[in-house]
Amino acid sequence: MSHVLTSLTKSAKWVGLALLGAGIPVGVAYFQVVYHNVEEEAQRLHREGNLYREKIKEEWNLKKQETQ
């Protein structure tokens, strides 16, 4: 998790510097980039969690069928 936060922070700083030249406040740009990256990461983790739950259900159903 710390790796994710480090990469999010680094990317947000670079975008913030680029947007500073465009007249957009750094704080606003930083928040937008970090929020977007965190939202993407949350969606990815949710998908992975769903796949894991499906795998567990399939394994459980196979064991259930084998015992019957």
What would you note in describing this structure?
The chain is an all-alpha fold. The chain has one domain (2-67). 90% of the residues lie in helices and 0% in strands. It has helices at 2-20, 26-67. The longest helix is centred in the last third of the chain and has 42 residues, at 26-67. The protein starts with a helix and ends with a helix.
Secondary-structure blueprint:
Layout: H1 2-20, H2 26-67
Summarize the structure.
By secondary structure, the chain is mainly alpha-helical.
Which sheet architecture does the biggest sheet show? none
State the end-to-end distance.
Answer: 42 Å
Weakly predicted, low-confidence segments:
none
Structural class: mainly alpha
Question: How do the helices and strands follow one another from N- to C-terminus?
Answer: HH
Radius of gyration, whole Å:
20 Å
Number of strands: 0
Shape descriptor reads: rod-shaped
Proportion in β-strands: under 5%
* Count of the domains: 1
What does the average pLDDT come to? 73
- Individual helix count: 2
Helix percent band: over 70%
Keywords: Membrane, Transmembrane, Transmembrane helix
